[in-house]
Amino acid sequence: MPATTLYRTQGTPTGDGKKGTVSLWMKPTYMTYGSGTRGLFEIRDPGVSASFDLAIDNGKIWFGVFNGSSWIGSLIPNFEPHDWNAWMHIVCVYDSAQSTDNQRMIMYINGKDIRTDYGGYGTETYVAQDTVSTALAASSSYLQRWARYSDTSSYYFDGYLAQCIYVDGEAYQASTFGSTDATTGEWKPKSDGEIRSAVTFGDQGSLLPFSDGSNLGYDYQTSGRSTTNDFTVSGSGYKTSDNPSNNQPTLNRQVYKPSGPSYSYSQANQGLSFGGSDWASIPGTIGPGDSGKWYFEAKVASLTNYAQVGFMTAAFANYKGYEGYFGASAGNIPAYGYGQDGKIYYSTTSANGQNTSADWATFAGDDICMCALDLDNNFVYFGKNGTWGNSGDPTSGSTGTGGQAVDNPTGSLWLPAVAGYNVTWLVNFGNGYFDTTQVASPNSDDGGLGTFEYDVPAGYRTICTKNIKTYG
After folding, report:
1. What is the CATH number of domain 5-234?
2. Candidates 2.60.120.920, 3.30.70.20, 3.30.43.10, 3.30.365.10; correct CATH number of 263-471?
3. Of 5, 6, 231, 377, which shows the fewest CB atoms inside 10 Å?
4. What is the spatial distance between Cα 427 and Cα 369, in angstroms, rounded to a whole number?
5. Residues 235, 236, 238, 244, Cα dihedral to 10°
6. Are the C-beta atoms of 457 and 372 separated by less than 8 Å?
7. Distance (Å, rounded) from C-alpha 48 to C-alpha 53?
8. Does residue 323 have a pLDDT over 70?
9. pTM (2 decimals)?
């Protein structure tokens, strides 16, 4: 999350400063192309005479070692990742005892060696053999911290982190921390238990699983619950159900960029403010195909003019939707939105319009909208603050009681979305928060996934990769 960091003062390391390993999973909110450095992990002398850093630098991953007055080692790949809506595994290995220079610093992304598998490095400076990293060897006063670089306020990481590991005094390959899924071919994390049994962490090493929401800085490198190496948390970060094994949507900051209206994102792309005097709509990053039943919530943080929330097909978004609204003329491509005026705005394969004949309640600031899409029976339902509009019953199946009929072409990809201008939306796709405020009465879907303010209708699912794989 923005302006959140975890830190502790380093004690006496096990290693001699010639070996160390960092492994983490990250999901940035946005790659800051051309706009500075965002820290992931560092060990730093408060006097800035030495540091050991992993960061995002102008849109690329950067691994650097600073001793005295210069960067003695620095790797910046040519590779520039583009799918920042997915989780990514990064491993950086420091092993200066190696006789071959390009083995003294190695960077892996999703299990692949950057130098051999991702086109190499634009910046490639290796340390001399047997170089001691002062930061790795320092025995007092140095800070270890996650999600921040330096002491500059703009250098916080903005996004999600998972399974953050630092190994003091040992060098491990990426395969120690992850493996390739035999069915999907995707790189996936190993369990905390697998890693604990395979890794010697050293006295200053750590494993942060973020499994305890009341103590995010808890170090779990051993099966016991010692607090010796715990980190202090500074900022408003919180535990989320979005993780490398089950990706959840965020609002799509990267692909959909309205050129006319003004807009700004917040809270790891779970918040979005539309300004100006023209419409814009922004979809989520992932969604189901043409089947299944799906649920999400969105809160109106502030509203001056217009607001809509609902589901649109990817084709609608790609055609015109991100510079328009639900129901706008978009080549007659399906989309369905609930407006602040109590109307349902729609586009089908044959028409565009508004449904004003039924009783959907109006909504305003601080209201929480509920959205339920039944793609098995092709109806969508909307409500607010725990009550379904138009006396709707999302569990009514083929009857579609109180629902809006949905045009669902075979092969469609459906995305949750918000729209409007002069409105601020806070979405909850299952993380259990509106901005930094946790939901008051947690509810999950039938499979126990997602955390929502209101009861998820029976049979409806949280939008996430696990559910989409099974039901969508």
Report:
1. 2.60.120.200
2. 2.60.120.920
3. 377
4. 9
5. -70
6. yes
7. 12
8. no
9. 0.92
